[in-house]
Amino acid sequence: MRRAxxxxxxxxASLGLSACTLxxxxxxxxxxxPRTVPFGLLGKSIPGTDNGRVTFITQPVYIxxxxxHLAPSSRIVPAPPTxxxxxxxxxxxxxxxxxxxxxxxxxxxxxxxxxxxVIHGIGVIAVPRPLSSIPRPQLVMAIGQLVYTAAAxxxxxxIEIEAAGTPERFPTPxxxxxxxxxxxxxxxxxxx
Length: 192
Description:
Elements: H1 2-18, E1 56-64, E2 70-78, H2 83-91, H3 96-100, E3 115-119, E4 122-127, H4 136-151, E5 158-163, E6 166-167, E7 170-171, E8 177-178, H5 183-186
Parallel strand pairs: 4-5
Antiparallel strand pairs: 1-2, 3-4, 5-6, 7-8
Helix pairs in contact: 2-4
């Protein structure tokens, strides 16, 4: 009997509380007085900084389309874009919408880019482990993704990938090996 009374009290209290709301309901949007918003959240700069500002731009990254070719896709990155910030967006792979339309990435999810910068037109990308464990056809596409994405950020002479400080040799679409991959070598991978 005591359990039944406890259960009845809990159900009654639940029903009573469900009729209440802690948030007042308004028939439409209400204007908030900017003076009541704390911490400078409506300011043009980042709160807690000396006029720190972040602007964003769209930047192309190259992913594998439904036909198995490289195609550009836009990502939002902080301005000015750096090779590292853009490659981090590339590593995330296609969006849910892109995946639903057949887009994929040849770059495995477990690839980590430690550092990336453009030096004299060459994108130097540091990874902790060699990419040689990736099957050859997938590796060719992955390098193509990196080459074209890096070129859009200023690596116009190609990319070099260093695994633990040692430059890697990777395959080209036509069957050779290279340490500096350029757009011209990977052009057959583009769509169109």
